[in-house]
Amino acid sequence: MVFGWYIIAYLFAAGAGSGAFFVGFSTCLWDVARQSPASERAAASVQTAFYSAPALCLFAVLLLMLDLGNPNRILPLVLNPFSSVIGVGAWLLALFIVLSVALAIASLGARPVPRPLFLLLGVPALLCAVGIMSYTGVLLSSLVSIDFWHTPWLVALFVASSLTAGTAVVVLGAVLQGTPTALRNLSGPWKAFFVLTLIEAVLLVVFMAVQATGPQSARDGVQLLVAGGMAPTFWGAVVVAGFVAPWTVHLAKRLVGPSAALVISSAGVLVGAFALRYCIVGAGLYSPLVLSFVAPGL
C-alpha cells in the first residue's frame, strides 16, 4: 500500500460515512426505545445519514481499489480477510454497505421502517460502523515501524474525528434538504457538534503531547506539524478551519443566521477532518522522499 492521496481520502470517507451512520442510527434508536415528541424531532433531523453513510463508504471502497490498482492485490483481501488489518477493514466496509443500503431501501418503502427490520439491519450495521471508525486509526497505528502512528491515542483521535465529521455530514445533509422541519429539529445534533469538536481537540492535544515525548521519529513528526513544512496546513486547516471557525460560528450563531452557521460549521469540520488525516499521514512519513509523493511541495 502507498500512503498517497487515495488512502488519505479513503480514511476520510470511511470515517465520515461510518460516523454519520452512528449518529443517525443512535438518534433513531433513542426514538425506537423511548418514543416522545423530542425523540421524533431528533430522528427526523438525521434521516439523510441513512443515504449519505453508504454513499461515502462506497466511495471509500472505490478509493481503496484505485490505490491497490492491480486486481491481483485485491483478490487476497477478499479470500483472506483476516490476513491483514486492511483486509478486515475491507470486509467491514463491504458488510456495512450491504446492511446500510438495505436499510435505506427499506426506509423508502415503509415510513417508519418496522421496528424488527430496523433493528435486524441497523444493529449489525452500527457495530460495523464502530469497527470502521476504529479501523481507520488501527490501520496506521498497527504499523510498528512508524513511531508517530504507533499509539492507541491515534485510534481514539480518529474515532472522535469520525464522529465529528459524521455529525457534520448529517447536519449539512439536513440543511441541503432545505425543509423547515429538518432545520428546526437540528438543535440536538448542533449541540452534539460542539461537544464532539471539544473532545476531538482534547484528544489531538493529548496525541501530540504523547508523541512529543516519544522516540525521535515521533518527535520529528510533531515538529513537522507544529513548526515545520506542514505547519500551515496543520494550523490553518486542522486547527482554524476544523475547530476555531466552528466554535466561533457556534457562539455567534445569531449574527450569521442559523442556516449559514450550520453550513459554515459543517464545512469547516469536514475540511479539518480531511486535513487531519493528511497531516497525520504526512508527518508519519516524514522523510523528504516520501513527503514529496504524499504531499508535493512540502
TrEMBL record:
Transmembrane regions listed in the UniProt entry: 6-30, 42-65, 85-105, 117-141, 153-176, 188-210, 222-249, 261-286
Keyword Transferase recorded: no
Protein origin, superkingdom: Bacteria
Pfam families: NrfD (PF03916)
Subcellular locations according to the entry: Cell membrane
Alphabetically ordered keywords of this record: Cell membrane, Membrane, Transmembrane, Transmembrane helix
Family to which this protein belongs: Belongs to the NrfD family.
Protein name as annotated: Formate-dependent nitrite reductase membrane component NrfD
Upper lineage: Bacteria, Bacillati, Actinomycetota, Coriobacteriia, Coriobacteriales
